[in-house]
Amino acid sequence: AEGAAGAAATAQRLCALRSALEFRGFAVRADDDASPTRIVAQRGLVGKFAPMLVHLSLIFVLLGGAAGIIFGASSEVIIPDGGSADIGKVLDRGRRIKGPLYEALNPFRGLIRSAQVRVDDFKIKYRDSGPQKGEVEQYFSSLVVEDTETKDRLFADQIFVNKPLRWGGATIYQADWSLDRLQLYVKGIPIVVPLKALPDEGAGRSWAAFVPLEIIQADDVRVMKRLKNPRQGIVLVCENMRNVQVYDSSQQLAGILRSPDAKMDSKMEGMPVQFGEEITVDGSQLRLDRVVGATGLIVKSDPGVPLVYLGFALLMPATLLSVLPFGQVWAATGEGEDADQVLVSGRTNRNQPAFEEEMKAMAISFAAP
Q: What residues does the ResB-like domain cover (predicted)?
């Protein structure tokens, strides 16, 4: 009778231990739910397998990077506002990088070669206040992807820095900008003047154009057939898409043309030179219609990007989960002279001192008086 009572008391203590383990988040199994003699518990199983997931995600990242180097291509192109470029030809040049197997095994190459990108609109946003007033804040390109042969519109989007366009396995990034040409009116007659970049000597980027004086002073430039003195003329200098500095034939600053799209007053008091949308230069009226920019794009085809994204998507949660400790606890009733005892053992892979303290606290809570 005393042996049966002792066995029942020991089973109750095991039940109390099971309840304490379950309260602390352990998953517990027993050989008998009503009167257990052995139990096993574990907690944080995800922390045991998370390191394996971390290694798997790193493999995905490495494979994705290798696929981009071997099968991908990347190039850059400057396209003026209103212009277009063949996406396939841009990538074929591979000015930045071109994988050795891009021609043979890039899965998107056929689709990319049948499309071209057209710049529908390009604009620059300048800072209106603060210590960096007047500097470029952001530049935007409205792009249209068209079929190379039929010119059908396939896709359109506006891109800017950190917001690329993705289509058909190609990614188009906004990377740079430039100025392409000036649209002017000389005595009411429209002309287009191409711009050329000046050497950067540390004073910032600038572009310039030369217009022969005979064109400026002609009654109708459209009927001109030959220039008698092509070396004499005016110089136009641009540093942004808002203003154009105009130097007359004597190389003196004659005035500043303001773009109609610029956010500023058309008249400014106290200006030492002419300022506005229209000024007089060497006896002729010169009016600025538009400063036309050019967008600098990076075109990239990287079939390894999905693997890289998948790898990082797994890596971040797996890294957090791998911090969780994995612990196991075993408990059983004794035999023979120790039949009234409960033997407990456990192990953990992290923070062993805290685990030992937790086990001691549970052992004291169900220990027999």
A: 9-184, 271-359
